[in-house]
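Record 1 of the preview.
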Amino acid sequence: MSAIEASSNPGAGSEGVLARLSIDLRARRAVVGEGELYLSAREFDLLVALVRDPERTITYEELIGEVFAGAAGVSRRMVDANAARLRRKLELRGAPGLLGRRQGVGFCLLASGRSDLARPG
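->
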């Protein structure tokens, strides 16, 4: 069950840190535990893209298409920068190790909160 589904079904959830993440798509609001994540529009869209299929690495190309709507001139560095800001905000709200990166491939959410993948810059 994804965090999006879990947010609409209290009491249900997945293992680890991801179970404490809830996303309200209509309000464009994300919460970890009791703390709201104050995200930019791009950070929110990145989180939503990743949470739809936790543990699967979403490629840079997929993220550029979904998060940046295929805008011209978007580079992997822009994805990295947004991911780095999202990671910091998740860590500040008590969700360290939730955002993983596969070097040169893309990003994923780690339901277990493990941090054995590369950290974005």
